[in-house]
Amino acid sequence: MAQDKVDKLEQKKKELEAELHNIQDELDDSIDQVRTEVSDKLDPKAFIRKHPLPVVGGAVLLGFLLGHEDDRRATSTSGTSSSDHKFTNTVLYELKRMATKKALSFVTDFMEKKFDEKAGQQFESTNGVVDE
């Protein structure tokens, strides 16, 4: 009789361990899935690819605002031309130049991709109608 109770307890222990292992595996899978989704959503390249025009527009607007701010500073502090001000202007100019270059590169790549897709559809079609 005592042996039956021990066997039942051991069986129950094995069942609970198996259930715990299953729960742990499901939890690990869920954590991995959330980690992947979050990293995909926070990846700047993926975000830019998904929303190219708003990103380019924001970059242009930011460049305009930074450039406009420099113009206001230059007119208000025209009497003081310190080396720090010159260095800051140089750094800002280079950052704007690099951002513009990247934005233009991205836009041209995006447009080339779209043109290639359209051209590919035209070549695959017969009589100008795409077969789907």
UniProtKB/TrEMBL annotation:
<keyword id="KW-0175">Coiled coil</keyword>
<feature type="coiled-coil region">
    <location>
        <begin position="2"/>
        <end position="33"/>
    </location>
</feature>
<protein>
    <recommendedName>
        <fullName>DUF3618 domain-containing protein</fullName>
    </recommendedName>
</protein>
